[in-house]
Design goal:
Structural class: alpha+beta
Number of helices: 8
Strand order of the largest sheet: 1-2-3-5-4
Helix content: 25-40%
CATH topology of the largest domain: de novo design (two linked rop proteins)
Number of strands: 8
CATH architecture of the largest domain: Up-down Bundle
Strand content: 15-25%
Radius of gyration: 20 Å
Distance between the termini: 50 Å
Bound molecules: zinc ion
CATH class of the largest domain: Mainly Alpha
CATH superfamily of the largest domain: Recombination protein O, C-terminal domain
Number of domains: 2
């Protein structure tokens, strides 16, 4: 039986001289692996639609293991992202996370939509680091490691929040912050942004400008939290760090 879905190419591996094994993140079926026979031949009809980070419509047999790709109609190659190493590094990380999740976990229409909206926004020139912050915060419940950012994780107070405790899994108010000497200090703006990132609708993301200090605070919270609980240890994430330090 042939299956049809829109999807995004999130990983490719060459197979032999002319074939390409492609991991598609599809709207209908989540993540699937397909063999694209002859896709490495320049004149192949599968060539353009099976390049890394391409959005398109795909026709395939799912199969039990690796499926077979029959048709690939590319609709967007995300050219702006690919033209610059910085958005490209962030976009590679965004899809690498999906590549590392189990197939079952990726079969989620919200998650597909988030990935697609982020790539579109990044391709439209929006700040790749901010988009990645939002993605990482929204991903936490799906990874089963949701953090409390709405009120103090210790006493439940919704105001005067002044730090984030990785150990306790959320923000702490100015009274409770003494409970974790390793808490990461946050300005009230950084707390507000963490909240906003958690609840924002991806279809409504406008331009968000962050000061350097705010960026650094949010980044240390997210990185420390991911390092402690996500189990993801991705080369693509380390590559972002290297680029930022250039
Ligand atoms: Zn408190």
């Amino acid at each position: 039986m042939l299956n049809k879905s829109e999807g995004i190419v999130i990983h490719t591996t060459d197979y032999g001289e002319t074939n390409r094994i492609v991991t598609l993140y599809t709207k209908e079926y989540g993540k699937i692996g397909v063999m694209a026979r002859g896709a490495k031949k320049p004149r192949s009809k599968l060539s353009a639609g099976t390049q890394f980070l391409t959005y398109g419509h795909y026709l395939f047999n799912k199969g039990r293991g690796l499926g077979t790709l029959h048709q690939a109609d590319p609709l967007d190659a995300f050219r702006y992202i690919k033209a610059d190493i910085v958005p490209m590094a962030y976009a590679s990380y965004i899809v690498d996370v999906i590549h590392k999740l189990s197939e079952k976990d990726t079969n989620n229409p919200f998650l597909y939509d988030w990935v697609f909206q982020i790539l579109k926004a990044m391709d439209g020139g929006q700040d790749p680091q901010v988009l990645t912050f939002i993605y990482e915060i929204k991903l936490l419940p799906l990874l089963g490691i949701e953090a409390e950012v709405d009120c103090c994780v210790h006493c439940g107070r919704p105001d005067s929040l002044s730090g984030f405790s990785v150990e306790q899994g959320g923000v702490l108010c100015q009274n409770c912050i003494i409970n974790d000497p390793r808490a990461i200090p946050l300005t009230s703006i950084a707390v507000k942004l963490l909240r906003m990132f958690k609840h924002i609708d991806f279809h409504r993301i406008g331009k968000i400008e962050l000061k350097k200090e705010t960026r650094a605070q949010i980044k240390s919270v997210i990185n420390a939290y991911y390092d402690a609980y996500s189990g993801l240890n991705l080369k693509t994430k380390r590559f972002i760090e290297q680029i930022e330090n250039l």
